[in-house]
Amino acid sequence: MPLVPARAAATRLGACCEPWGRGGTWGRGSRQLQPPPPIPRAAGGRAGLPLAESPCIAPGCKAAVAGGRVHVVLYCPERGVHSCGLRGALRGEQCLAACLVNACWHCRLSAMSQLELKRNQVLEARFVADEDVLKHISDNGGVKVRKDRAQLALNVKRFVKKLENISDDDDEAQEIMEEQNYVAVLGACAEDSLRNGPSAGGGKIYSFQTPKRSGKMAELASELAQTPGRNVTFDSSEYPEKPACTPQSSKKYSASNKPQLKSKKNEFVSTTPYRLRKRLTAPSLRSDSESDYSASCSEEEEEDKDHKETCDVILGQKTPSKTRAAPPSKKTPAKKLKEEMTSNLVEEYFEAHSSSKVLTSDRTLQKLQKRKLDQQTLLVLLNKAPPAFTAELKELNQQHESLFSKWMLQLHLGFSIVLYGLGSKRDLLEKFRTSLLRDSVHLVVNGFFPSITVRSILNSITEEVLDHVGTFRSPMDQLDLIMKRFKEDSSLELYLLIHNLDSKMLRGDKSQQILAQLASLPNIHLIASIDHINAPLMWDQAKQSLYNWLWYETTTFSPYLEETSYENSLLVQQSGSLALSSLTHVLHSLTPNARGIFRLLAQYHLENKDNPSYPGLSFQDFYQRCREAFLVNSDLTLRAQLTEFRDHKLIRTKRGTDGVEYLLIPVDNGTLTDFLEKEDEDM
Amino acid sequence: MCRMKSSEIPTAALVLGVNVTDHDVTFKSLSEVLQDNVTPYVVSLQAKECPGIKHLLQKLMGQLMDCCVDVDSFEEEECVNISQKKIRCSMASLSKWYESVTKKTGSETPSKKITSSSRHWQSPPIVVIFKDMESFTTKVLQDFIVISSQHIHEFPLVLIFGIATSPMIIHRLLPHSVSSLLCIELFQSLSCKEHLATVIDKLLLTTQFPFKLSEKVLQVLINIFLYHDFSVQNFIKGFQLSVVEHFYSQPLSVLCCQLLEAKKRVNSLSHNQCENIRSLPSFRRYVESQVSEKQIALLTEDSFLKEVTQTLLEDLHIYHENYFTVLRCLHVFTTSLPKYPLGKQIRELHCACLGKSVWETEEYGSTVQLLRMLAKDELVAILQKCVEIFISSSGKQFSNTVEKLEEFLARFQNLETETNEVQDVSVLSQKELQKKTDLYHLQKTLLELKESKRSKKLTKFEMLRFEVVDFIDSLVRSYLAPAEMQTLNEVVYFNTANTLREHLNAAPRIALHTALNNPYCYLKNQTLKSDVGCISNTAPDICIVYKLHLECGRLINLVDWLEAFSTVVTAVEGTDPDSVATDQVDEIIHARFIRAVSELELLGFIKPSKQKTDHVARLTWGGC
Predict the structure, then answer these.
(1) Which of A26, A144, A636, B172 lies 20 to 30 angstroms, CA to CA, from B126?
(2) What is the tens place of the pLDDT at every residue in B449-487?
(3) Does pLDDT of A420 surpass 90?
(4) pLDDT class of A212 with cuts at 50, 70, 90
């Protein structure tokens, strides 16, 4: 059975990522059953001819063979450059199956030969029509390929044979069989229930990926932007800018970068680990026009160019692809060796994580002239945005609401209910509360509130529900009292609604333990929601059995408005009013000299606000300035003053690379300007 | 215990297995038994309550004082409570307390409770149970043991260690100097599988309870048990949930009760409920098998339907009675076979029989073949067991079967004498062989012997064995029909395994990923329909942002991300960049982007990073 290794690879990968979710959908059955999309038309003059029959390498398909790895970049005429599924290295024959399964339906690479890698050998790669791949995968023998594609069938047979060799391995096969049985029993649900069924194929999510080119996102974006009429064929007239930039970019290459051309192409075609790529490109840093980009991102820029170039090349004629494929094989044997050693998942992971350098562009939001929005304007703006899919969302919500009475029954029978799934579940729980809990004692806990603690939950139970006055030495004592009271008095009943049980404040082990013990009381009924992807990891077996969860999937797709409004979001500007008032208060209690010192620092700070690499003011410089302004007379007094500032968190010190101490004000520039203005007014 | 040195603390190491969730029940009943029979002073401690020796002593004293209150009269409660707060928790105070308590009880009541214990102890011992020994910090344990060993003369102390892994852990946790202070006796609890077998035996394989689980549901529960937690408690929870689900979702579950009660309830069924019965697939099958007049009557007359329903319910009840008896009987046969083709446990056999006609399966075929090769004494022993099972069963219709089986047994008995005769014959012939040394005759007799062997290939024993196996086979075929074939099985069988799986063994990550990756699964909107691995650009913002972020490495530049996002979104809206309101649209898109990104942050896909300005770090799959 040729499919076995592929599935095994996926499951094994998945197993390490999602130990508790074994009932998942590894099976790609649903995917395979989808009707294959039409065979992509070849670009250029070869329209209409199925690519699978083209005699040699299909246009736009680039493959590089480098020490144990096959790196493939596919060009799909319909969707632009894309290397879906084949991005990772192909490790041995086993992975081929995985790749074929994973590969996009539009472009299909039959990379079934030449895995024994020799120098100067070019991987033979070609497109295979969807039906064929489907057949290879689904057929047990896999040999029943249409006769009219004899050439192809030959390759396929070899491939299949290899696969059979693999599955001969008894132990593994046995293991896989068991796994399949298990999946059949536990996981199959996902397939037959509409809910979890399609998509969610394990391999794609759970595989480690080699680092990607950062240009990918933009690419995908343009690709997505084009999808609405999905049958749009790639028409060069639609993208007039692309051919236009060809001469320019190629000129650039020929003019300035000729000596490095080889190595660059090399690096483009392969998705080698970053370190390697860095080494390759280290000598060829580009320092010209793109001031936007730092050294580390120059190569990525070049890649973009390369992409464009290849696009054009492909549009034009298809011969260059051959020459394209050649360069990688010119690697030195040493490098090959090195790569062979890392052809292993674990090593690849560490390889990817070992380099601290990241390859992203250096653009910042500041340069984009996008001012940060504050919470209020954000809300206003969001209200202007038209809501989408209202009908569908309503239907979803109605489905969930029909479960209310069932929840109520199950809560009464001693189960706790946990809601998961994408979308804010706050409204749903609120609705549950208003419709069913109006006449009973209930406590709503907004877990997403940043200062919520277990203690406050316990306090509200003891004070509001049990009318207990007095304090407790520890939460455990408090819990003991609550448990005692609830056990004694069976008429007491409490519904506990917790929004975001997995919030930062409640996810600690101790908090969860206390909440679990609360939930285990027969007359406390807990219904909670979780959102974080790793939330179930909070609970070990003991806690889970205390909670006695029943899981309900309630995907609502509604925005997390309340939940995220407290999250100190990266992009939302904090109003800063708090910081400003604390700044003025602290400084007002200081001597005028001290205030002068701070002003000096603040002014210098603002002068340098446009300099992204501003390290801070070095202590020596600062001392000089303060002396000149007659604010201090010795560096000891300055140091004493700075200690005071530091204690009030007005400044931060940082050691530079040269060992010099730099001073920074950890307040954003707007607040600082406001502060200075206010100071000026006061004076 | 007699070899125990005076300073050693008697200790029981209780190996309980990995199913930690079930331990609580075990300990609870253990301490109850101890309290009833041995000593009122039983203390159970958990690791999470005792981070330090001080807490441990506090807990210990607290629990001891409480049980002392239970024993003593209530007047003293107050003073005890006060003293509990005042006394500094130390071993000295503990021994003082013990002295006072034993003196009191000793003088006041010769104690009915402590009679049994007094054989070993002059005074009742203090039993300290460490529920989860592995989780205790070694220092706390060591300190406690060392300290208490010094006071062992003042009050008798017994320790009980609850161990989830292996007894080796004691020596790993405690150095020799400490463990030498203990006199350890090892106890092994039953394995969780045996507990499960008992539960299944008592709950499922009996006619006592009308509610039944279908094969798939049982399979799911057993799989959760075997693959996830080995927790009998969770199995019971699953069972409870199935009960709830069954009575909540199946309107005809009103008839799922004891037979007499059910018959009464049938009479009071409303018309709608009758219609419910008519729409049951198993009932429809039944109707189709009837003659046409009866069909019409069944479908139109409620009263007739009720009558038939009553007999059908009775049939179902009888089917169950027979089923479980024959199942146990078959189980006796299958467990004696090598490699257990139908499973070793009765639950496996039960699953096999519930789902489909077991006699059509390959495994059953091989079972029968193996049965035909059983040795005589084995077969006799099995038959005897079967007779016992049938006799003890409540079903009356098995009297014939019992007779038949006993007849078989008798024939086996007779066979013994017969075989002796046969042996005599063969011995005789052998003697003849030796007598006649003539070559021709020898050849002749040899040939005769050979022929007789060939023709008599089936000895009487073999014939009988065949008969027995055929008889068992006929029993299986007539009584172990799959439950799904029974009419009205929907009334008592819970069979929506999916719900059970969804609620007990959920996969929240997959749900989240599906929602993000393929919103069409949830929002059935045609515009969202797209290929695998691709996403429509009209999808909710968070889906688009998620999809874009999948293309990134460890760090994501927010500016690039924002631009990519706005490219996608503007393409949908079809706004050309030259339009007047671009600025405003841009703002809105910016706001939407902010919302989507902070939602992703909440979901745990990204986190802010300080490595580079305006960058976020990916936290999930492939973010390396």
Answers:
(1) B172
(2) 777 766 656 778 888 888 999 999 999 999 999 998 899
(3) yes
(4) very low
Read off the pLDDT of residues A15-42 as tens digits, 9 standing for 90 and up: 333 333 333 333 333 333 333 343 333 3
Residue A271 tokens read as 């998705």
* Cβ–Cβ contact A217 with B under 8 A: yes
Q: Which two tokens stand for residue B193?
A: 């599988």
Beta strands in A435-531 (DSSP E): 442-446, 494-499, 524-529
The answer to whether residue A278 neighbours chain B at the CB level (below 8 Å) is: no
Contacts with B525 from chain A: Cβ below 8 Å: 389, 392
Radius of gyration for chain B, computed over Cα atoms and rounded to the nearest angstrom = 37
Distance between CA atoms of residues A12 and A8, nearest Å: 6
By the 8 A CB rule, do B343 and B404 touch?
Answer: no
Determine the length of chain A.
683
CB contacts, 8 Å: A552 with chain B: 502-503
Chain A residue with minimal CA distance to B498? A189
Neighbours of B43 (CB within 10 A): 20
Residues of A in contact with B568 (CB under 8 A): 221, 224-225
Q: What is the pLDDT of residues A107-134, one digit of tens each?
A: 333 333 333 333 334 343 444 444 554 4
pLDDT of residue B393: 80
**With 70 as the cut, is the pLDDT of residue A51 above it?**
no
Q: Do A553 and B511 touch (CB under 8 A)?
A: yes
pLDDT, tens digit (0-9, with 9 covering 90-100), for B90-104:
788 888 888 888 776
Q: Which residue has the higher pLDDT, B249 or B536?
A: B249
- Which of B248, B513, B615 lies at the smallest CB-CB distance from A360? B615
Cα angle: A247, vertex A253, A259; to 5 degrees: 155
Nearest residue of B to residue A392 by CA position?
B523
| 3 state SS of A416 | strand
List the structure tokens of A219.
């690419």
- Dihedrals phi, psi of A122, to nearest 5 degrees: -100, 135
Four-CA torsion B618, B619, B621, B624, nearest 10 degrees: 60
Inter-chain residue contact B508 with A535, CB threshold 8 Å: yes
Residue A532 contacts B where some CB pair is shorter than 8 Å: yes
Phi and psi for B605 in degrees, rounded to 5? Answer: -90, -30
Q: Which of A182-186, A300-304, A494-498, B443-447 has the lowest mean pLDDT?
A: A300-304
Cα within 13 Å of Cα(A80), Cβ side: 22
Distance, CA of A190 to CA of A27 (rounded, Å)? 9
Number of H-type helices and E-type strands within chain A: 30, 13
Answer whether residue B200 shows pLDDT above 60. Answer: yes
Within 10 angstroms of residue A316's Cβ, the number of other Cβ atoms is: 15
Using alpha carbons, list the distances in angstroms from residue A569 to B506, B599, B604, B606: 30, 9, 13, 11
Number of H helices, E strands in chain B: 27, 10
- What was the ipTM of the complex prediction? 0.84
User: Is the distance from CB of A215 to CB of A307 less than 8 angstroms?
Assistant: yes
- Cα separation of A571 and B552, whole Å? 19
H-assigned helices in B336-398: 346-355, 362-371, 376-392
Contact B532 A393 (CB under 8 A): no
Answer whether A44's CB lies under 8 Å from A315's CB.
yes
- Do B367 and B382 meet the contact criterion of CB atoms below 8 Å apart? no
Supply the pLDDT for residue B266. Answer: 92
Whether the Cβ atoms of residue B84 and residue B61 lie closer than 8 Å to each other: yes
DSSP A277: H
Exposed / middle / buried, residue A72 (Cβ in 10 Å: 0-12, 13-18, 19+)? buried
For B524, the closest of A190, A219, A392 (CB atoms) is A392
Do residues B115 and B105 make contact, with C-beta atoms less than 8 angstroms apart?
Answer: no
Query: Which position has the higher pLDDT, B222 or A175?
Result: B222
Task: Give residue B262's Cα distance to chain centre.
Answer: 30
